[in-house]
Design goal:
By secondary structure, the protein is mainly α. Helices cover about 60% and strands about 0% of the residues. The termini are far apart. Belongs to the phytoene/squalene synthase family.
């Protein structure tokens, strides 16, 4: 099941990791289509020693045994609140909005040239594997373009650790090493050219490391589980592999100066877009995942509609399956509706790629319905011309200012 990053990354390819499979090899670019398989474990402990002390646990894990449990949504919203508070505090201290345009102050000489080359390479990867999204970024300021490309490439590389051509050789230790690289990157010690682009980005925008750590946790989940007991587990997984991208991206995309919405509400709505997109991926790829022995649908909800794993593996579209799918699609669309509120509050130069993503993924849900809910043998596909036709629609929506501004404009 193919994942999406930063909204519109629907066009996919592969960035695989070469070498010994332990996270120390070089990164190579390959053709093909990435897939996101996954599962959820409610508790993911990263208790491996590193230097002095023990690696901290993810912010999105269960409480210790014997303590009361929070739902996955409550835990995720705690992370969102912390991200928004961090941005608000930086804005208060600086006296200006840290979510406005940021101009990089690059060092002169060969280092600056190498950094420029790194960003160019990130843009090339984005253009090759995420054409629709890349086109949408062209309205953004050059600094924001480069930063979003750098985030895209890091997410793609992370995703391909467990879904790329070398996925069979990836171990928990390899993911620990990848997270070590992340920590070094945020300390200004990149391992390679593509890391350098992100290392520069996080010094120019108020991007926090926690969503990146949580995404690595999502990859850890992929290694150990292929079933979801309920939607709470599914929600946590969707946050880790897709909702995190919204938290990474909002500081770069920026909030409209005229917006009256709170920072936290916009972060919540960016999270909703990631959840909606990942739910759409899951519904689109049911048959593909089943052929890999994986079912990423809430087991309790399947049972409520009289369905079981055996029905998924049989791959037959029945009235029970249609009813189940209608219910799942309805929920995904509810998340899209919530996400739309946040898109309107973004800086005007950043709205187009996000609207493009939202419309495209809504069309995937439409395609599932058009296929009579047969996502076992048919892939819900949005054709090239339909994608292109949606771009002017997305652009038109991007021109509409935040809702609070419209009454003032009408006076």
């Amino acid at each position: 099941m193919q994942s999406l990053r930063v909204g519109a990354w629907a066009d996919t390819g592969v960035l695989g990791v070469g070498g010994d499979g332990n996270g120390s090899g070089s990164v190579v670019v390959c053709g093909g289509r990435g897939r996101r398989g996954g599962g959820v474990i409610v508790s993911v402990v990263r208790g491996r020693e590193r230097g002095h002390g023990v690696r901290a646990q993810s912010s999105v894990t269960t409480e210790a045994a014997g303590r009361s449990y929070l739902s996955a949504e409550q835990k995720v919203l705690e992370v969102v609140a912390k991200q928004a508070a961090m941005v608000d505090e930086q804005q208060r201290r600086s006296g200006i909005s840290t979510l406005q345009d940021v101009r990089p102050d690059l060092t002169a000489g060969s280092a600056a040239e190498l950094l420029d080359e790194a960003y160019v390479r990130c843009g090339e990867v984005c253009a090759e594997y995420a054409k629709t999204f890349y086109l949408g970024t062209k309205l953004m300021t050059p600094e924001r373009q480069r930063a979003i490309w750098a985030i895209y490439v890091w997410c793609r590389r992370t995703d391909e650790l467990v879904d790329g051509p070398n996925a069979s050789r990836i171990t928990p230790t390899a993911l620990d090493r990848w997270e070590d690289r992340l920590e070094d990157l945020f300390r200004g010690q990149p391992y390679d050219m593509l890391d350098a682009a992100l290392a520069d980005t996080v010094t120019k925008f108020p991007v926090d490391i926690q969503p990146f750590r949580d995404m690595v946790d999502g990859m850890r989940m992929d290694l150990v589980k292929s079933r979801y007991a309920n939607f709470d587990e599914l929600y946590l997984y969707c946050y880790n592999v897709a909702g995190t991208v919204g938290l990474m991206s909002v500081p770069v995309m920026g909030i409209a100066p005229e917006s009256k919405a709170t920072t936290q509400s916009i972060y919540n709505e960016a999270l909703a877009l990631g959840i909606a997109n990942q739910l759409t991926n899951i519904l689109r790829d049911v048959g593909e995942d089943a052929r890999r022995g994986r079912i990423y649908l809430p087991q309790d909800e399947l049972a409520r509609f009289g369905l079981s794993d055996a029905d998924i593996f049989a791959g037959k579209v029945t009235d029970k399956w249609r009813a189940f799918m209608k219910d799942q699609i309805k929920r995904a669309r509810m998340f899209f509706v919530e996400a739309e509120k946040g898109v309107r509050e973004l800086d005007k130069d950043s709205r187009w790629p996000v609207w493009s993503a939202l419309i495209l993924y809504q069309q995937i849900l439409d395609a599932i319905e058009a296929n009579d809910y047969d996502n076992f043998s048919k892939r819900a596909y949005v054709g090239k011309w339909k994608k292109l036709a949606s771009l002017p629609i997305a652009y038109g929506r991007a021109l509409i200012p935040p809702p609070d501004v419209l009454p003032r404009l009408a006076r």
